[in-house]
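INFO batch 0412 | record 1 of 1 | parsing
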Amino acid sequence: MKTYQLLKSHCSKIFFSGTGNYWYEGNAIGNDKSLFYRLYAIILISTYAFMTVLEIMAALIGDFPNDEKSDSVTFAVSHTIVMIKIFSVILNKNLIKSLNKSIATVCETYENPMLMAEKYRIIKINILAYVLVVYGAVAGFVFEGLRKLFSGSHFVTIVTYYPSYEDNSSLATSFRVFTTIVLSVMMVTMIVSVDSFTMMYLIIFKYKVITLRHYFDGLREEFDRNNKSDAKGASEKLSKGLIEGIIMHSELLRILKDIDTAFGTVMAMQLCQSSGSAVSLLLQIALSKDLTFIVGMKIILFVVALFFLLALFLCNAGEITYQASLLSDAIFYCGWHACPSQKPPQRKLGSIVLIACVQAQRPVVMKAFRMIDLTYATFLSVVRMTYSVFALFYAQNK
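INFO prediction complete | emitting tokens
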């Protein structure tokens, strides 16, 4: 599937999730300025925000047992970060619209159908796996709520300031069920509008870089074929193709800066969420002496969901760094050194290649908070740090 079709299809899903129209072609997807849509979006986001405020109040001033108090802190932190991520994407809507147009058109002429099919398959696998992990974690909290209900307590998934722990009235029960439904819908908005959108952009950009590398490889193959029969024509064609490739490379570097601006907050906040919340959750396992199997699975599924998303972000960002590092060799070996002609355009070809290689050799590394590299190494460091804290407290508790 072409990048244009892929992005347009996803933007239509985002539109129905209530965060607006991110497509650059007018109202081709829908009118997010209509009164009905604005009302729908305000109700949806306000409901998420209201629930998050109640979670924060429960964590700060609520009177709950230890297990529900821990859950309230976990959800208050996690959902506050989710709201920040949602608002960061909404605030960058105009930038994302222009990004959609830029990334859909750059290198479009040279996209290989097999490579595009591979890209589409990778995106589908990543998103499907993430959806399963997220709703697996949600199911863990729902099962724990049902276990409490059948053991004589009350059903609860999201711990909010209202209702209080002692309140088992019909209204309180209805509100707890309502917050569970809101959680499920909120996860849809988070997955569609924020996390999968960010992930999709990283994967698309990676394949744009691969397409550009194949383009430079193709220049060399075409030059070798044409050079046997028409050396002058082959040299001129190589010169034009090389300049076009360098322009595409510069455009990709510009697009990457815009991606960092549009989605940098999402990845930075996910880094905080995965490291901070995971430590908090694992400490519950390390310090609790009467942890049931379902509670343990609930915590583990949540931790897996947090780290799985972080892995998708950091590993795809790290893959961009790796693929970009291969461009300098592809540019250098494009065949410029074999051009026989010594006319002015060809005499300058070596200088053009040198400048392009220097530009391609600069590390393309996305950063969180403009300080922390979003790479494989960072992901491994976060996992090691989280496990070290867990192992330390677990050993002391034993």
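INFO post-check: Residues 59 and 73 are 5 Å apart (CA to CA).
INFO record closed
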